[in-house]
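User: tokens in, sequence out, please.
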């Protein structure tokens, strides 16, 4: 590898040292070696969809809180990706409260990706 290529494949860490940059495999939680990576990604995608629905509805956090039956600080946490206090079931319930259907499909896994939990949102 040429020096210019090596330089392009390195990034400065916060402390000024260089570390290799690599492409994600599609699940950042798996890339970071976290447990339950598929479930974490599914929750993140559900939360993202909720935030998009709230944005499109032009709801304030206070209005969203009333619609979802939670308080405003929880809406703030949700919108900031702080999902520890939200189960997948609760996120799915929020989506239905925002007038969207949620379908759960069980099927054979694609050979390349293996079995796991995935979220697909239609426009």
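Assistant: Sequence out:
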């Amino acid at each position: 590898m040429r020096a210019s290529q090596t330089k392009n494949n390195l990034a400065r860490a916060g402390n000024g040292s260089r570390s290799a940059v690599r492409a994600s495999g599609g699940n950042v939680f798996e890339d970071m070696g976290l447990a339950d990576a598929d479930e974490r990604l599914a929750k993140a995608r559900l939360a993202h969809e909720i935030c998009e629905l709230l944005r499109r509805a032009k709801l304030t956090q206070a209005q969203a809180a009333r619609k979802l039956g939670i308080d405003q600080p929880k809406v703030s946490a949700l919108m900031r990706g702080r999902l520890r206090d939200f189960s997948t079931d609760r996120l799915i319930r929020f989506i239905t409260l925002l007038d969207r259907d949620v379908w759960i499909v069980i099927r054979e896994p694609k050979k390349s990706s293996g079995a796991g939990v995935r979220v697909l949102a239609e426009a």
